[in-house]
Amino acid sequence: MPELSDGDDDDDVDDEEQWQWMEEDSQPVTCLFCDRLLSSVNATLQHCTAEHQVNIVDLIRNYNLDDYGYIKMINFIRSTIHDYIHFLCSEDFLQPVLQDDPLLQTGTESSLYILSTG
Ligand SMILES: [Zn+2]
């Protein structure tokens, strides 16, 4: 029965392909906004929504992102967040650019209050 044995071989190949796909999908994913390692893409998306208030799925829908747009967005967020964290950790910008800058004198609490009251 050559036909049956061919069928079995095909099934084996399918199983292996599916297993490899599952394995790839369960690779740890680094969060877009912090150093957390998440167990899957799905867990990362949920983490971004819960911890960083950024819903990637909503972004894709709101901006009608295709695959290219999605790839660009992910890479853009990763590179800018990396630069941003580096910027926050450095002391390069502690010297005022403008002398007696009123924005610096209000501090974060007043700025947040002004923003929240509009
Ligand atoms: Zn995170």
TrEMBL record:
UniProt keyword Chloroplast, yes or no: no
The organism's taxonomic lineage, starting at the top: Eukaryota, Metazoa, Chordata, Craniata, Vertebrata
Subcellular location: Cytoplasm
Signal peptide stretch: none
Gene Ontology molecular function: any one: protein-arginine omega-N asymmetric methyltransferase activity
One GO CC term, this protein: cytoplasm
InterPro entries associated with the record: ANM3-like_C2H2_Zf, ZNF277, Znf_C2H2_sf
EC numbers on record: 2.1.1.319
SUPFAM superfamilies in the cross-refs: beta-beta-alpha zinc fingers
Pfam family, one: ANM3_C2H2_Zf
Nuclease among keywords: no
Residue intervals of the Protein arginine N-methyltransferase 3-like C2H2 zinc finger domain: 59-80
Organism: Haplochromis burtoni
Coiled coil (UniProt feature): none
Source superkingdom: Eukaryota
Protein name: type I protein arginine methyltransferase
Keywords per UniProt: Cytoplasm, Metal-binding, Zinc
